[in-house]
Amino acid sequence: MTARIAYADVEVGTELPGAVFPVDRATLVRYAGASGDFNPIHWNERFARDVGLPDVIAHGMFTMAEAGRIITDWAGDPGAVLEYGVRFTKPVVVPDDDKGAEIEVTAKVAALLDEEARTVRVDITARSAGQKVLGMARAVVRLA
Amino acid sequence: MPLDESFVGRSYPPTEPYEVGREKIREFAHAIGDANPAYADPEAAKALGHPDVIAPPTFVFSITFAAAQTVIQDPQLGLDYSRVVHGDQKFAYSRPVRAGDRLSVTSVIESVSSRAGNEIVDVRGEVHDASGEHVVTVHTKLVARMTGAGE
């Protein structure tokens, strides 16, 4: 595994490049197919409203995948991600219009864990429509 | 009806192997909009030290969740699956999942609890390859919301 960021070059507070990920209904249909998660709350507005949701919502695992991209993009080698965990706190609501929704992701180095193993903990913030959609979103990454 | 707490610690036999294909990884990476070459180009993956293309960190969830279905839909457990939402999710890797892997999942019910009317089940999936090497441990928390509260 060969991350492109060196352990020696980061410190607590180092910010990763942030990103904004657009998501529309077509994104969710594609993710449903690729992941095998065909729960209708992710594509059927009538069903979503029937179970008390404001509209169709994104798959939690899709949001987790997008948030993780800023870690793997930063590390270069996705295999450098040793641990990755999140809590799903709010849904990403995806309206059926020409804009859809956006997931805004930022992250920073929160702890240097092990100098010998060159591991750091990265804490992630993911927001949509002004609300945090993930809690306790953390990754352990092995740097170069 | 409360969940059957005798399920805590229960372990289910390993699943039939799931064979990870290059094209399935490519399809998944495309679905999350990720053009990282380690997911699509075997040479790029090899340059990073991997024997073949690797999968994005969350890819393996589809495999472990399919295994967990057997567990959480066990009628004896008593979980109202129609009310279930995904609470927490965590992956702890020994190595990345890669094309050619034949992965088998052993699911264990880690805990069963009730809080504020919600019923909570933690399932751990241990994923091993065909040689028995550990690949990843997957923790999934499922919450059945407000059973009996009429919401």
TrEMBL record, chain A:
GO molecular function: fatty acid synthase activity
InterPro entries to which the protein is assigned, alphabetical: Fatty_acid_synthase (IPR003965), HotDog_dom_sf (IPR029069), MaoC-like_dom (IPR002539)
CDD domains, alphabetized: SAV4209_like
SUPFAM superfamilies, per the entry: Thioesterase/thiol ester dehydrase-isomerase
Record Pfam families: MaoC_dehydratas
GO annotation terms (biological process): fatty acid biosynthetic process
GO CC terms: fatty acid synthase complex
Residues in MaoC-like domain copies: 22-108
Similarity annotation: Belongs to the enoyl-CoA hydratase/isomerase family.
Protein name, per record: Dehydratase
Organism: Streptomyces hainanensis
From TrEMBL, chain B:
Every FAS1-like dehydratase domain range: 6-137
GO biological process: fatty acid biosynthetic process
Entry superkingdom: Bacteria
InterPro entries noted in UniProt: FAS1-like_DH_region (IPR039569), HadA-like (IPR016709), HotDog_dom_sf (IPR029069), UPF0336/Enoyl-CoA_hydratase (IPR050965)
A GO MF label: (3R)-hydroxyacyl-[acyl-carrier-protein] dehydratase activity
Family: Belongs to the UPF0336 family.
HAMAP family documented for this protein: UPF0336 (MF_00799)
Protein name according to UniProt: UPF0336 protein E1283_02380
Species of origin: Streptomyces hainanensis
